[in-house]
Amino acid sequence: MTKPTIALIGGTGAEGSGLAVRWAAAGYPVVIGSRSAEKAAARGEELAGQLPSGSALLTGLENGPAAAAGDIIVLSVPYSAQEGTIAQIADASRDKVVVTVCVPLKPPKVSVVWQPEAGSAAAEAQAQLGENVRVVAAFQNISATHLFDLAWEPNCDVLIAGDDKEAKAVAAELAQAAGFFAVDAGPLTNASVIEGLTALLIGINIRNKVKGSGIRITGIPRS
Asked: How many structural domains does the chain have?
C-alpha cells in the first residue's frame, strides 16, 4: 500500500532533516520545504544520498509547493519563524493534518520555560491555520542527536497533543515509523506542557553535559 507523502516544512534543519531520513527509510515519500527552493533541493539531494536502498523518494521544494505536495504536513521551524512560515503554507494546508514540532523558546534563557500569550506555539498555529486544519503537537522532546543513525533504537517517547482523534493517530503512526513509542497526551491545550518540557531538557543536557536527554512514560504496556 502506498504511504502518504510527508511535506516537512523546515526540513533543512537538524531535527527536520533527521526525521526526513527516518521517514523516507521507512517508505514514506518526503518533500523537504524551505524558504529557498535551491536550498531545499540541495538538502533533499544530500539527504537522499544518505538513504539505504529501497527507501522512498526524498526531494526538496520551496515551502508553498512542498506543502501542496504533502498529504501530511510537518512543521519543524524555530518559533521565531512560525508565523511567517505558516502564512506561506496556509492555503496548501486546508483539510490536512499539520504536525507541529515548534517550541517557544526565549533567548538567551532557552532552558527556562516560556509560554506565548495563546499558551503554546501549537495553539497559535491552530488559530492561524483555522478550523479546516487539524493541528497536532508532537516530537518537541526528541533530540536530533541520533536521528540520522538508522541503527539507533530510540529510548524516549513522543508525546502527542491534539483535539482530533484521527489526526493524533496520524502523528502516532509517524512516530512509530521513525522508531518511537507514541503516547497520547490529551487535547491541544496540553501542548503547552509538552513544549515546556523541551526547555527543561535543554537545562538537563547543560547540567549533565549530555546532548540527548529525553522523556519516557512508565507504566504503559509496550509491544
From this structure: 1
In the numeric block, which cell numbers belong to residue 98?
499539520
Within-domain flag for 217: no
Query: How many CA atoms within 13 Å lie on the side-chain side of 201?
Result: 20
Residue 128 is part of a domain; what is its CATH number? 3.40.50.720
Q: What b-and-e string marks burial along 177-195, b requiring 16 or more CB atoms within 10 Å of the CB?
A: bbbbbbbebbebebbbbbb
Domain that holds residue 171: 6-208
Task: Determine, yes or no, domain membership for 214.
Answer: no
216 within a domain of the structure (yes/no): no
Q: How many residues make up the chain in this entry? A: 223
Over residues 46-95, the pLDDT tens digits come to 999 999 999 999 999 999 999 999 999 999 999 999 999 999 999 999 99
> CA-to-CA distance for 57 and 9, rounded, in angstroms?
16
List the beta bridge partners of residue 34.
62
Q: How many CB atoms lie within 10 A of CB 167?
A: 21
Contact predicate 168/136, CB 8 Å: yes
